Amino acid sequence: MTLSSIIAGSRVGPTADRYVSTSPARPDDVVAEVGLGDAGVFADACRAARRAHDAWRDVPPPVRGQVIAGAGRLVEANKERLAKIVSREVGKPYGEALGEVQEIADTCAFFLGEGRRLYGQTVPSEMPDKQLFTFRDPVGVVAVITAGNFPVAVPSWYIVPALLCGNTVVWKPAEYAAACAEAFYELFAHAGVPEGVLNVVYADGAETFRGLETALGEGLVDKVGFTGSTEVGVRIGELCGRHLQTPCLELGGKNPMVVTEDAELELAVEGALFAGFGTAGQRCTSLGTVIVHESVHEEFVRALDAATRAAKVGDPMEEGILFGPLINERFADGFEKSLGWIDPARHRVHGSGAVGRISESQPREGFVGDLGGLYYHPVIVDGVTAEDELFLNETFGPIVGVTTYRTLDEAIALANAPGYGLSSAIYTTDPKKAFTFRRGIRAGMVSVNNSTSGAEAHLPFGGNGRSGNGSRQSGIWVLDQFTRWQSMNWDYSGRLQKAQMDVLEIDADLGFRL
User: Fold this and answer.
1) Structural domain of residue 263, as residue ranges?
2) Are residues 327 and 396 in the same domain?
3) Is 250 a catalytic site residue?
4) For 23-36, how does the pLDDT look when each residue is reduced to its tens digit (9 = 90+)?
5) Residue 12 belongs to a domain with what CATH number?
6) Which of 2, 16, 239, 263 is the most exposed place for a label (fewest CB within 10 A)?
7) Catalytic, out of 175, 250, 299, 319
8) pLDDT of 60-99, one tens digit each?
9) Per-residue pLDDT tens for 251-288?
10) Residue 160 CA: distances (Å) to CA of 36, 77, 168, 186, 310
11) Is 425 within 8 Å of 447 (Cβ atoms)?
């Protein structure tokens, strides 16, 4: 399958630059060949979106909601097919891929009703014969740039509410998840999204940035949504700031999990296993460091080590797999760098029989998969400190650090120390500890007795600090990203009434005392 960018419903012609998307589980399995566009293609897509905007904006919001409803029904009807594409192209276990696809359907189910609830307000005036109103208007053209670790769910967090609110969209998916993006586009196109309202540009990062720079300079883009690394997010934030725009930035995380002395350890281990190693640790909400009370540290580490060694790693289509391969070679190279931060003199390593790539020379018991795939041993690194690179930086792979604490204040300080602020968790049976942690943690999301991973489609998702700029996705909160408030005052008194000046005053006897 050869793919190319889609602008106003038409394919962009052949390009010189090509990307071959292969399965990380079996590198000889070519999933798609992709013709990559350049900066000009991205800008052209933005021009097409601008041309399509007025007509889409004028479609009544409840009718736009019906288009979203149709997309949701098509996603549900194609759930297994789309999940298999996700598993094949990015190596996500099939069970997780099914959950990811369900998240698109859930997002559509939530927002189809918002087409009837894009409420404004009637506000009382301080003057007679005058009414005040507020309205939600679409921002215009939205540029969406997403990573490939959640190749269909995360794009839906942007695209579904953006379309529902009356915006047109230019979407740049990860080139290594192009087949997933193609399937997503086809489902929405067949749901009735008009040509030019949703455009897809396949391009590398450098050309996308140049294209975005051009489009912003020409006034073609009114909002940018980006999910990816903190480093790239900083550059996009700077670019948007030069054009007086506030982007929606969902960036990396170094997500802490505090395990208190009164925690149910079995539950905490289960949460750490899923949060740390699900999706091979390639979630922005993946567990970074477990901060364990010193009194239960040894017991917790023993139990997590045993659970991790027993976990099934391998082919994402196999039953009961905890995690499959890393997404592609670029992520594998980055993870190798993280493994280099392990210091054998200070750190104790658990979780598997080796560290690094699973191979004939470094086998893993129970492994089921092609050794040519990008499979890595899960790693638990005990004894990390707040000065370690492993503690301070996102690792984006199947590795979890463990450290200890004595007081809850110390645990909260450790949890905040890396400067990220996406997700966090605390395992405790004490409500006071739970609320003390919530008050002190800087993360945008807090879980109590649940993992750092796993957001529901109607709850605000997003981070602070190095994890984002405070914008939120999902639920009603994302509407503020894709609409602008407009106020209107209507004076039907027949005369000019001046605010703050021509206002009836009623005197009070302020000197009165009982």
Assistant:
1) 255-448
2) yes
3) yes
4) 999 999 999 999 99
5) 3.40.605.10
6) 16
7) 250
8) 999 999 999 999 999 999 999 999 999 999 999 999 999 9
9) 999 999 999 999 999 999 999 999 999 999 999 999 99
10) 25, 18, 11, 14, 39
11) yes
